[in-house]
Specification:
The protein has nine helices and six strands, in the order βαβαβααααβααββα. By secondary structure, the chain is α/β, with parallel strands linked by helices.
Amino acid sequence: MATIYLIRHGQASFGKDNYDQLSPRGWEQGQVLGRWLAGKVTPNAVFGGNMERHRETVEAIASGFGQALPDMQAVEGLNEFDHMQVVERLKPEWADRHVMARDMAAFPKPARLFQQVFEEAMARWISGEYDHEYAESWGAFQARVIAALDELIGYADGGDVLVSTSGGPIAVIAQHLLALSDEKALAVNNVIANTSVSRILYSGPRRSLAVFNNYSHLEAEDPALVTFR
């Protein structure tokens, strides 16, 4: 059976004008993963969403890998959902980033506040009760991610592949393969580390989740590199 290596992107630039680019730590995480993959994996193809953090993660992996990787092929269905729209439907005032920054700065642990709001906003989104308020419903997001998985397997043609994507698509794929509830998928999404690797074994229509959320490469190099946001 061939293997799909599902990789969550490196740490993005939370709180910056361009969230979609990797932070310095995100670049380092990708380089560490590249060194870890070297000698273990010879990918036939590399896929990713068409977001900046997906592309930069592949660049960081390549720099640590030490040899050329296949050019990344963009599969739009592997993009993350619009997490800020999901948050803003719960807290419309946070559409103004200055208000959001003010509220977070007033909280003793700003990252914890954002996580609490994010989890509540996600629960609202996946409930299905407010689908008309979102550009993409939870059900539509699930459908496009699974369609993207089918698409990249078709392109891979039985070979091992690297896939640079985000936590949401990885959680949906795990949900699909393990028949998890929506609530369990939400819980899964909350624990996926940056540059963690999940492995799917596939052969024809058969697909199995063999490894989920492995970030031992970061722990071995420097535990401080382990991040979830």
